[in-house]
Amino acid sequence: MAEKQSAKSRRGRPRQAEVARLAGVSQTTVSLVLGGNKQGVALHPDTCARVLAAARELGYVPDPAARRLAAARNNLLGVFSFTATFPTAVEHSYYPFLVGVEQEAARHGYDLVLFTGSSSGGAQAASPGALERVRLADGCLFLGRHIPAGELRRLVEHGYPAVHIGRRDELDNLAWVGADYVEASAEVVRHLAALGHRRMILVREDDDAPASTDRERGFREALADAGLADAAAVVRAADPAAEITADWLRGRCAEGVTAFVAEETDTGAAWRALLAAVEGAGLHAPSDVSLALLGSPPADLADRPRPTGFDIPRTELGAAAVRALTALLTTGETESPLVSCAFRPGSTAGAAPTR
């Protein structure tokens, strides 16, 4: 049937009327679904799914002029988290991001829409069409350690204004704001080297999240600059609790390692494992070994000694992300800035022990 021909065989921009024919609905219904149903009309979920599927098949992209007009009436910015539990608790590490987002959005005259579809499991965001609902907002901020690259790429390629909080070079044309983890991690290494440490190990999770990659890069570059390059200086642990044990730590100390560094993640798994290993080995920081954390400790460990490391400017990152998104909405262009992290002296690192 003519209605079933692919977008590749068509000429020009697909229209809503074509989407309506392919989905078997009225053009009014298509307009409601693709426009985010701001009128609140009751629509069956199957109907919405058919419309979105037809739009994807045809490669439908909203007319830029029409979208600008709609945005002028909407004044809504979306926030979508890819974490398993949407961060609403004050003690959650993502909460300061939301504070910065809210404050900056208010300054620019925007309201916020929090998309919580990932609250019961971040993997839901990777299902086909899962991100389409963010079109209710004029543009959307995304955050999370791991992202559904295909779905997010599709949104951006269709012209939807999106900014990720955290560096995301792997997706072309996706704007982002990020913390300068490379320089911050290097500063921690320089601090440890100045204390006399010559053997250090970085413990990180076994994945390729950009934040982890940046921390490792800064760690290795600073070691090399100090003449301390060591191919075995980075340990990737798939299960830190099982791999970073007291016996493991004793073995590294016997080899001459005097400082152990961990990366911050959503779970804090590497840092928790290091603390448990030090305690299990009957050692103390900083008298026996020095410890450093590339980021901030989990909220439930706030009563422990303040770790040497750096603080991530989460509130400023949230505000910077809003500024980047509003620039996309008003000018169609934006930059992807890096925000500096503040070094934290802490109390877990001291002079290298003599062994």
Q: Can you describe what's shown?
A:
Pfam families: LacI, Peripla_BP_3. Keywords: DNA-binding, Repressor, Transcription, Transcription regulation. GO terms for molecular function: DNA-binding transcription factor activity; transcription cis-regulatory region binding. There is one protein chain. By secondary structure, the chain is of the alpha/beta class. It has 3 domains: 2-58, Orthogonal Bundle (434 Repressor (Amino-terminal Domain)), CATH 1.10.260; 74-179 and 315-341, Response regulator (Rossmann fold), CATH 3.40.50.2300; 181-312, Response regulator (Rossmann fold, 3-Layer(aba) Sandwich), CATH 3.40.50. It is built from 12 helices and 12 strands. It has helices at residues 16-23, 27-34, 45-58, 64-74, 95-107, 149-157, 181-194, 210-225, 240-243, 246-254, 269-280, 314-331; strands spanning 76-81, 111-115, 139-143, 162-165, 175-179, 200-205, 234-237, 259-263, 290-294, 308-311, 338-339, 342-344. The protein has a 6-stranded parallel β-sheet with strand order 2-1-3-4-5-11, with helices on one face. Strands 7-6-8-9-10-12 form a 6-stranded mixed β-sheet, with helices on both faces. The longest helix is centred in the last third of the chain and has 18 residues, at 314-331. The radius of gyration is 24 Å and the shape is elongated. The model is unreliable at 1-11 and 119-123 (pLDDT under 50).
